[in-house]
Design a protein that fits this description.
Number of domains: 1
Strand content: under 5%
Order of helices and strands: HHHHH
Largest sheet: none
Helix content: over 70%
Distance between the termini: 31 Å
Oligomer: single chain
Low-confidence stretches: none
Radius of gyration: 16 Å
Length: about 130
């Protein structure tokens, strides 16, 4: 158990993946439900899902993944700026990819979200939750 604890404590990237992966599963569950059951288009489904998941992922990323001690007045504003950009990119990317190609809306949402997630680690660690 000590080895697992030291790995968990020593690698913010691992914590980010676990937290981000959990939030991604939640995101996909909500988004796909809105698309498939709610008969909603991919762009509005992505935007609504982002709004719901924003608060959960902010708290989890701040407290668990990056263990930030910076003020919420700094991190929340930066997180909101980043995620406003990210939500727009994912929504437009999903809509474009599903309309301009033979990709299903679900697969287009997966591709857009994965690409945004990769960018999110670097932006979050170097700007949003950067210590000091």
């Amino acid at each position: 158990m000590t080895v697992l604890r030291s790995v968990w404590d020593g690698y913010p990237g691992l914590r980010f993946l676990v937290v981000g992966g959990s939030c991604a599963v939640l995101y996909f569950a909500i988004c796909l439900t809105l698309i498939e059951v709610g008969d909603m288009g991919p762009a509005p489904a992505s935007a609504i899902t982002y709004f719901i998941c924003f608060w959960i992922s902010y708290g989890a990323q701040r407290e668990i993944a990056f263990r930030s001690t910076r003020s919420h007045s700094i991190t929340l504003v930066r997180y909101a700026i980043w995620h406003l950009f990210g939500a727009t990119a994912v929504s437009l990317g999903t809509a474009y990819a599903s309309e301009a190609s033979d990709l299903s809306p679900a697969f287009a949402a997966i591709v857009s979200t994965v690409l945004c997630g990769i960018a999110s680690f670097f932006i979050s660690s170097r700007w949003v939750f950067r210590q000091g």
